[in-house]
Amino acid sequence: MRLDAEVKELKGAGPKAVEALMKKEIRTIGDLLRFYPSGYDHFTPETTVAEAELGECCSLKLTLISGGSTFRRAGKVISHFEGTDGTARVRLTFFNMPYVRQTLTAGKSFVFRGVLRETSAKTRVMEQPWFIESRRYGEVRGTFQPRYPSVKGIGPARMRSFLMQALKETASIKEDLPPEYMEKYQLVSRHRALQWIHFPEGRESLLEARRRLIFDEFFSFIIGVRRQKTEEAGRIDPRPMKEEGAWCGRLKAALPFSLTPEQEDVWREIRGDLTGGRLMNRLLQGDVGSGKTVLAFLALILCAENGRQGALMAPTEVLARQHMDTLTAYLEKSGLPVRPVLLTGSVKGKARRQTLEEIAGGTADVVIGTHALFQEAVSFRDLGLVITDEQHRFGVRQRTGLMDKGSDVPVLVMSATPIPRTLAIILYGELQVSSLRTLPPERKPVKSLALQDTQRGRAYRFILSQIAAGRQCYVICPAVEEGEMQEIENVRDYTEKLRASLPDTIRILSMTGRMKAADKALVMDTFSAHEADILVSTTVIEVGINVPNATVILIENAERFGLSQLHQLRGRVGRGADQSYCIFLYTGKEKPDRLSVLEENSSGFSIAEQDLKARGPGDVFGTRQSGMPQFDLADIYEDSDLLKAASACADEILLNNPEFRLSEERRIDFGTI
Q1: What does the pLDDT look like over 388-414, one tens digit per residue?
Q2: Rounded to 5 degrees, what angle do the CA atoms 464, 290, 438 make?
């Protein structure tokens, strides 16, 4: 079976299972094998309640004192049990699992695994723990069991069955790396790496698997970068734009702020590319809130003034709508005869047909959208510029698909994740790079504070004081619903707990990436209109959301996020003139080093450089960190040594064999070029 075979070929993969997998973008056997665990449960030896560390994951052998009690609250079924090991008692709580009472009966002994916490009344509790009969714990003790993002209707056992089938059927996966390079870089085979990442035989096997797969991700990316750079080297722009006319000046005059000297410098670079003779392929990197988007708008207006169409592709519908609203307001104030249109997945029916006609007919000057822009039905009359916002969220094929809708199209890619120069050279070679390193003067650096989660009450009091002053707040949770990861906060439960903890006058909304686009848009519109005080969300708000009145962001389980993603989340506040604040809540007694880095630094460039210098091997057995999200496993900071090795390997192979190609089934989208 090939990696590009469809998942429906797996035994037991009926229509419902296939549909559920496709919703997670798992269409092929290769996609399934790259559906990597989000973390691993290391089944450590049992400890006593008295010796267990509060706030840490532990395994407790408990004898149940009672058969438990079940009640309903806010639409949830809550079950309580009490157990003891002779050193202390623990209250065990389960949500929406009434059937556990049939198994957890008084007098029986089980091993419960989860995070042990202590309430204000000094009661020790463990919520939603994993459990197994004591006599059977020996079967898993010392092993690493993978945890996967939830797939509706497909439980862990069924997912393991699919993965085992996929591994068995792909035992003869082709190796792209010549044997001498595998030996030189001490890499295990691809198939063994995939086997061990899903079914580790121990700590060492998991490390070896990750090492090979991370190397592959970097290698595939760099091969693609080098090949595209070779193909594009010296490409001439057959239709350079005319020098800046009056339209850009009119847009600048309509802005509620003046461009900073740094923005003016970068605008000159972009304008020089568009009006010069060489086809633009520029990366614009800037810290969160540094003013990249307005430069993109200027480039789109210059394109429109030259009678050509410009496309701005955003990674989410929420951000695309925000760009559309902002640009429309600027255009109305400037009086420019430029027509922008919005094309996203939620634009349907008659509105969609009309928008497609305007794009094809050329009456749409600026097209703002999501991945919907590169669909086959979208045809431009004269595409003259492609801009991608937050480029790490798009694959090479996606951007190429949009660029192919025009002939010799200039490209500007934007990133709010600053990359240290040393790594930028490895990743992008001599790609033209512009940087915005300073914030506009009207924006104040966000003040940051890391607190142990036992001080949550202190954080809530501060949030209430900000709300009393007319401000708003974000709360970020790593998970959507209970059961995804038993020891972390989730949006649904957290929203209910927050409503129970705060005064009834506080208006609270929630949002997750699983919601329909229209529902997410409604939530953001409501929050932006200050019809809610607190928005509880997953990291769906990470990219570009702009609500100037939001001055506080509280990030739960901050230890679960990578440094870059935490900095991105922090950038959701500080968008207005008021002082803003970021509070990182972490579990455990020790504050993670990266939170100290964030407390002391507000510049993304400074953070990136410090992180690269200071970072050692990460904790690969916890939840995967999310620093640079264009890769499935790799992180350019965490794995910088492997990045350098993969780069050297790719360059050596291409030097000896300029025609080297990855096998078709291995051409995977990783990041931008």
Answers
A1: 886 444 444 444 555 556 567 888 988
A2: 105
- Report the b/e string of 261-283 with b at 16+ CB within 10 A: ebbeebbebbbebbbeeebbbbb
The count of domains in the chain is 3
**569 and 538 in contact (C-beta within 8 Å)?**
no
Query: Does residue 578 sit in the same domain as residue 470?
Result: yes
Residue 609 pLDDT > 90, yes or no? Answer: no
Q: What is the pLDDT of residues 432-470, one digit of tens each?
A: 788 888 877 777 889 999 999 889 999 999 999 999 999
Q: For residue 637, tell me if it sits in a domain.
A: no
Phi and psi angles of residue 341, each rounded to the nearest 5 degrees, phi first: -130, 155
Q: How far apart are CA 588 and CA 476, in angstroms?
A: 18
Total residues belonging to the chain: 673
Note the pLDDT tens digit of each residue in 118-170.
887 788 999 888 898 998 888 888 888 888 888 888 888 889 899 999 999 88
Look up residue 619 and give its DSSP letter.
Answer: -
Residues 501 and 382 in one domain: no
Same domain, 362 and 463: no
Whether 402 and 453 share a structural domain = no
Share of the chain above pLDDT 70, in %: 87
Among 575, 601, 627, the domain boundary falls at 601
Mean pLDDT of 489-518: 87
**For residue 223, is pLDDT > 70?**
yes
- Backbone φ and ψ for 263, nearest 5 degrees, come out as -65, -40
| Same domain membership, residue 470 and residue 398 | no
Q: How far apart are CA 186 and CA 194, in angstroms?
A: 16
Segment holding 647, helix H or strand E: helix 640-656
For residue 53, what is the domain's CATH number? 2.40.50.140
What are the angstrom distances between the C-alpha of 598 and each of 86, 232, 390, 521? 43, 39, 21, 30
Higher per-residue confidence, 667 vs 266? 266
Q: Is the pLDDT of residue 619 over 70?
A: no
Cα–Cα distance for residue pair 346/484, rounded to 1 Å: 28
562 in Cβ contact with 592 (< 8 Å): no
217 part of a folded domain: no
Where in the sequence is the domain holding 513, given as residue range(s)?
A: 447-601
**What are 257's two structure tokens?**
């702020």
* 405 and 455 both lie in a single domain: no
Say which residues have a Cβ less than 8 Å from residue 24's Cβ, sequence separation at least 6. Answer: 35, 149, 151
